[in-house]
Amino acid sequence: MHIEEHRKTIDFESEPRDYIDAFLIEQKKQNPKMEKYGEWSDLQLIGTLLDLFAAGTDTTSSTITMFIFNILHNPNIQAKIHKEIDSILGRDKIITMSDQTKLPYFNACLQEIQRITTLLPLNLFHRTVENVEIDGYIIPKGITIIPQFESVHKDENEFNGKIFY
Fold first, then answer.
1. Using 50, 70 and 90 to split pLDDT, how confident is the model at 165?
2. Is residue 29 part of a domain?
3. 3-class SS at 142?
């Protein structure tokens, strides 16, 4: 297993090579007895790695699927994206992240797909670090905040998806 390989080759005095190294360095400090369960255990590391993998692959593949589905059902949008890519990058260049700012329409369409499909309606939990006042309401320090993307994404006063069609 990769954890054991890392454990054999890790230099605890150097910068971590990756996430597993960083975890093992902190594990040595926080769980020196190498307890099997609980915080900083190998089981927690495996669970965290699985979470990172699943979160990254599922949302990415779902976004790509929804993008393809939507442009196939909207050939006029597909044509505009194609025209923008051809006119700015040409037909032979592979699109990279560095091209994102050069393709405003394509980028806007990707963002619109993420808005209208809202794969993750709830964001990561946050906690207030001090008392906060928002629109006259006091939110005390230590309150868990769960941003709800979908309520914002579907607000017709904020978004007009028809501008893309």
1. low
2. yes
3. coil
Residue pair 147/123 in contact (Cβ under 8 Å)? The answer is yes
- 102-124 pLDDT per residue, tens: 999 999 999 888 888 888 777 78
Retrieve residue 107's tokens.
Answer: 């980028």
In sequence order, which residues have a C-beta less than 8 Å from that of residue 66 and are 6 or more positions away?
113, 117, 119
Structural domain total, the chain: 1
Q: Identity (one letter) of the amino acid at 83?
A: K
Contacts of residues 70-79 at CB distance under 8 Å and 24 or more positions apart, as own/partner, are: 70/113, 70/116, 71/109, 74/165, 76/165, 77/109, 77/164, 77/165
Task: At 134, list the tokens.
Answer: 């928002």
Containing structural domain, residue 35? 1-40
pLDDT of residue 131: 96
Residue type, 50: L
Name the pairing type of β-strands 144-145 and 126-127: antiparallel
DSSP-assigned letter for residue 102: G
pLDDT band at 164 (very low <50, low <70, confident <90, very high): low
Closest by CA position to 159, among listed 126, 117, 112? 112
Task: Pick left, alpha or beta for residue 142 (phi over 0 → left; psi -120 to 50 → alpha; otherwise beta).
Answer: left
pTM, 2 dp = 0.60
Determine the length of the chain: 165
